[in-house]
Write a structure and sequence with these properties.
single chain; about 450 residues; 5-stranded mixed barrel; binds 4-amino-1,4-dioxobutan-2-aminium adenosine-5'-monophosphate; binds magnesium ion
Length: about 450
């Protein structure tokens, strides 16, 4: 049996010296002295490096003397109390060997790089401290999402990625086709004949798993999805990606009030989880990304979110005395500048805006008694704006059919969705949380491209 390596995280948290450990990782830096040198080694298990002391007595000393940043090495030796400042433990190498060499062209030499530059080397940037921290937090946050729902009796549903429906009706769909694009089959009128395509009809990458989620919520009671979603919207902003992950709970026997409660509890709970479990990585964000971050996260966890109707929000915006790039008037969508004013300047806290005008929202939202608004809600947070969008769904067959007509949604194509109202319909509600937006909020990282492993945005893949 070969010896198993001990991860650096475990070594640095050791409560005693250890006489024989195997450490494998990548060299961050080398510092030379006359008869020995230090290696700072990182293996991704945590933010911190372990210091390796290599002396002339170390077997392999001569081969490793010139080892550079980025190389992978294997060290066998002793874990001992460190003489140096800032670390409890270090390793005295008995033997050291090179696994994979590196060279001066390795781009992550010890100096600060711009985030733009690091985006161009997305395959190497996880080896930089900031990105190691981002992606460890991302992993833990995923786990917290599952824990939150599993602990509360929700069932995890995998909704399809290839779909024939357009949930949001915004038209920003990526088409999926197996047709020969140079010579597609055409109808007599000259249009592309999708009946000859792979699925015998036009198909897309999903923009949301909600509609399929509703089918499962009206069977399993409480469900959630957590998966990739795709939007072909040409929005070149720090908050929009073409491929992003969405968390979508859907809850039967639930109204808008309860939906807002769920969203608030959820956001608080997952943030609290990472505050408890990702301390070292968060320290990096607190110290180097955003000095206000820790205060903001604790505030969000401890204090209730503000709640305001869309109509009241419009009044606040109109009364603000601010000059807006996009005009504010009842019936128009809230733009990012408006959302950020509400959460950052007016309420100075996360705020849930509810009861939006019917005409700017998708066909599935429940019409309120005023006939003008729908039971929709968005959660807005400082620095980002919208992080959650949700609604109570229209459970009344006749009204849903009217809404579909008004939105030009085909009853034939969505007859399965109408069945959910024909057979044992119930009030139900849900929401979608943009996972990358949550991660931006938790880390303070300002660009969505830097919290997703390989970002897909307009013009860039
Ligand atoms: O508000 P949206 O479009 O809502 C839905 O898709 C509903 N079907 C959700 C539901 O009720 N089940 O999207 C939900 C969230 C937004 O609040 C935002 O956080 C995120 O998804 N989002 C994006 N994140 C990154 N890039 C984009 N292009 C995004 N578009 C939406
Ligand atoms: Mg939205």
């Amino acid at each position: 049996m070969t010896m198993k390596r001990t991860e650096i995280d475990a070594l640095l948290n050791s409560d005693s010296e250890q006489s024989d450990v195997l450490i494998q990782g990548w060299v961050r830096t080398r510092r030379d002295s006359k008869d020995f040198f230090f290696l700072e080694l990182n293996d991704g298990s945590c933010l911190k490096n372990i210091q390796i002391v290599v002396t002339r007595e170390t077997e392999g000393y001569d081969d490793l003397k010139a080892v550079g940043t980025g190389a992978s090495v294997s060290v066998r030796g002793e874990l001992v109390a460190s003489q140096g400042k800032g670390q409890k433990w270090e390793a005295q190498a008995k033997t050291i060997s090179l696994i994979g060499d590196s060279c001066e062209t390795f781009p992550l030499q010890k100096k600060r790089h711009s985030l733009e530059f690091l985006r161009e080397i997305a395959h190497l940037r996880p080896r930089a401290n900031l990105f190691g921290a981002v992606f460890r937090v991302r992993s833990r946050l995923s786990f917290a999402v599952h824990s939150f729902f599993q602990e509360r009796g929700f069932h995890y549903v995998n909704t399809p990625i290839i779909t024939a429906s357009d949930c949001e009706g915004a038209g920003d769909l990526f088409k999926v086709t197996a047709l020969d694009m140079d010579q597609p089959p055409r109808s007599e009128e000259g249009a592309i004949d999708f009946s000859k395509d792979f699925f015998s009809q036009p198909t897309y990458l999903t923009v949301s798993g909600q509609l399929e989620g509703e089918a499962f919520a009206t069977a399993l009671g409480k469900i959630y999805t957590f998966g990739p979603t795709f939007r072909a919207e040409n929005s070149n902003t720090p908050r929009h990606a073409s491929e992003f992950w969405m968390v979508e709970p859907e809850i039967a026997f639930c109204d808008l009030q309860q939906d807002m409660d769920w969203a608030e509890e959820f956001v608080k709970s997952v943030i609290e989880d990472v505050l408890d479990t990702c301390k070292d990585d968060l320290e990096l964000f607190f110290n180097f990304v955003d000095k206000e971050l820790e205060k903001r996260l604790r505030f969000v966890v401890e204090r209730p979110f503000s709640r305001v109707s869309y109509t009241e929000a419009v009044e606040i915006l109109l009364g603000s005395g601010k000059k807006w790039e996009y005009p504010v008037e009842w019936g128009a969508n809230l733009q990012s500048e408006h959302e950020r004013y509400l959460t950052e300047e007016h309420f100075k806290s996360p705020v849930t805006v509810y009861d939006y005008p019917k005409d700017i929202k998708p066909f599935y939202m429940r019409v309120n008694d005023d006939g003008k608004t729908v039971a929709a809600m968005d959660v807005l947070v400082p620095g980002i704006g919208e992080i959650v969008g949700g609604s109570q769904r229209e459970e009344r067959l006749k009204i849903l059919q009217e809404n579909m007509k008004a939105h030009g949604v085909s009853e034939v194509d969505y007859s399965w969705y109408l069945d959910l109202r024909r057979f044992g319909t119930v009030p139900h509600a849900g929401f979608g949380l943009g996972f990358e937006r949550l991660l931006m909020f938790v880390t303070g990282v300002g660009n969505i491209r830097d919290v997703i492993p390989f970002a897909r945005t307009p013009g860039t893949i």
